[in-house]
Structures are given as C-alpha cells and as structure tokens.
Specification:
337 residues, mainly beta, Immunoglobulin-like, seven-stranded mixed beta sheet, four-stranded mixed beta sheet, 3 helices, 11% helix
Length: 337
C-alpha cells in the first residue's frame, strides 16, 4: 500500500510538471514579514518553576504558549462533612485550551472588490476593498503550523480574480503579516465558441481609470489589445473575430499600475469556428480554490488534507468523508494545468 501511495503521488507530480505552462507569467509583489513577540515563561525553553518540566504542553502549570507563569496551580478540595473512610474522591484537573494564531493580509485590488481569504482551502475571512481598491483583513483562530493562504477578489458580477497563494508559518508567538498583495483583474467572455465574423465581448474589473492589457494567444499568434477601466474599475472590449483564424484562443488580462504589473487574470478560452455558443461557468468540482483551473494549487490543498480527519467538503472530491488516493485520481483526471 505504501508503494502504491507513492506511485499515485508520483504520477500526479509528473502530470503536473507536464501540464504547467512553459510561458513566464507575471508574479505579484508579495512580502511576508514575521514579527516575533517576546517569549513567555511557557515558551522560553527554561524550567522556570524548577519542577523538571519545561514549557507548554509539558509543564502542567502552562495553559498555553502565551502563559507567562509555569507555576502549578494548587487546587484545594472542598472540605468533607463527616467521617468515614469512604472511597476514592473525584479527581481534580484543569483543562488547557489550544491557542491559535492570526494573520493580517493587505494589498490592492479593484474598487469595492469582495476579498476572500482561505487557509488550507477553507475560507476564514472576507472583506470589501475601499473605493480605491485597498484592502486589509485580519484572519484569526488559525491553527499553528505552516499554512497555505489563498487570496482572491470577487467583482459585482461574481467574476473571480486569479488567486495568490502564500505559504508561511503561523504560531501562537508570532504575528504574521502578509502585505504587498496585488490582485489581478477579473475577466469573462460572453461566448465560449463564436462563428467567425461575430463579435466576442470581453469584460471584467481592474484597477480604476487604468489601461487594461488583454493578451490573446493561440498556437500560432500572440496579440495584446488595450481596454480602459472606468472609475468603478469596469472595462469591456468587443473582439472582432474577422481578423483571427479558426481555432482555440486563451485570453488573459493584466494592469500596469505605477510601473508595477499586476498578475495575470485567470485564463478564459474561446473557439472561433462555424457556430456560436454562450459561455457558462466553469463548474469543475475538482477546482478546489475556485479559479476555474485544476492545477498545483488545488493539488497542494488536497495534499494537506491527505488522511486527515474531518476534511472540508470541497477537498473530499468523491464525498466519502476522507481524502485518499481516489481524490487524487479525480484531481488528475480533471487536470487543466
């Protein structure tokens, strides 16, 4: 079984390596700063009360890593009423609570964007960007350890930006600040397939009052068109398909803001052919983080929950209450790269 597990994981990794696009895409400017708070008596590696036990959870006098007193609490049993040697009395104990960490995430998106933060694939916080697109969110109650943060924006039409994923440590003695996030524009198309000569409407939201660069690529061509966002960040462009050959095209958008290029949007595709079909939502249940792609980001989220108890429904791809090789097989089958 062990060799089978590694065989499947190896297949998934090899598949991912072959499906990742070779073209270089823009990378957001993300800085992760860790501010370490002063160590407490229950996290300093010292036997402060001389009982031979050091720090939480080994010293019973520590209720958490943040506790600044290792001294064992003394519990005085209630006085008994009368005599008699009766049997053993009930035991006394003090419950300890598991401390959690927190993180602050800040950056820029488009005006009034709905910002969503996920930790290990589970949504933990959301907020609304200001009229100029700035946002700042605090996520609390995070279990200590190495955590994967995914941040994306929703526009008023429920279009999604491409998610930015940052992995960093969270613990009870560290305040984790993730700053410098710049989220991509959103982009949608009104058709998935279009009869050559008919127009295709591309639209979305980006940084307000800026040029939005739209890249259109196929196996043989690469073109960049320009649209302009208004004060609300909305933009649109009507694509004249007369100037394009029959075939499939991938389309992405980005913005250059104050000499800084945003990440690319998620990709939308169109086929120029002999008929016209309206576009539909991606709807792929293996798309764990909701970016309409099944790739390494989804793989990393599913891998985190591998054989862990109580996985979220969105990573339990076959709905059997656990994450195992069957879920990785579903992920590989739906892989888009």
């Amino acid at each position: 079984m062990r060799s089978l597990k590694f065989k499947y994981l190896s297949i998934a990794l090899v598949l991912a390596a072959h499906l990742i696009p070779s073209a270089a895409f823009a990378v957001s400017s993300v800085s992760v700063s860790l501010t370490v708070l002063p160590a407490t008596a229950c996290s300093d590696g010292i036997d402060n009360d001389g009982d031979g036990k050091i720090d939480y959870p080994n010293d019973p006098g520590c209720s958490s890593f943040n506790d600044n007193d290792e001294s064992d609490s003394t519990v005085t049993p209630p006085s008994g009423g009368g005599g008699g040697g009766g049997g053993g009395g009930g035991g006394y104990y003090s419950q300890t609570s598991v401390s959690t960490g927190k993180a602050s995430i800040s950056g820029k998106a488009f005006p009034l964007a709905r910002i969503v933060v996920l930790v290990d694939g589970t949504q933990v916080a959301s907020s609304t960007a200001t009229a100029d697109g700035a946002f700042s969110i605090s996520a609390t109650g995070i279990e200590p350890g190495v955590r994967s943060f995914s941040i994306y924006a929703l526009d008023s039409l429920v279009g999604k930006s491409a998610p930015i994923t940052v992995s960093t440590s969270v613990n009870t003695n560290t305040s984790t600040n993730i700053s410098g996030i710049v989220l991509s524009p959103t982009i949608t198309t009104d058709k998935s397939e279009v009869k050559k000569g008919d127009p295709v409407l591309l639209s979305g939201f980006a940084v307000a009052n800026h040029s939005v660069l739209i890249e259109i690529k196929s196996a043989s061509i690469s073109k960049t068109l320009v649209a302009f966002s208004n004060a609300l960040g909305a933009y649109s462009l009507s694509l004249d398909t007369n100037t394009y050959d029959f075939g499939s095209y991938a389309i992405k958008a980005y913005v250059v803001d104050d000499s800084h290029q945003s990440p690319y949007s998620r990709s939308v595709g169109i086929i120029i052919g002999s008929r016209t079909l309206s576009a539909s939502a991606c709807g792929n249940h293996a798309d764990v983080n909701g970016d309409c792609k099944v790739n390494l980001i989804d793989f990393s989220v599913v891998a985190y929950w591998y054989k862990r108890s109580n996985p979220p429904a969105l990573v339990d791809l076959n709905g059997d209450g656990k994450v195992n090789l069957i879920d990785f097989s579903i992920l590989a089958f739906n892989w888009t790269g």
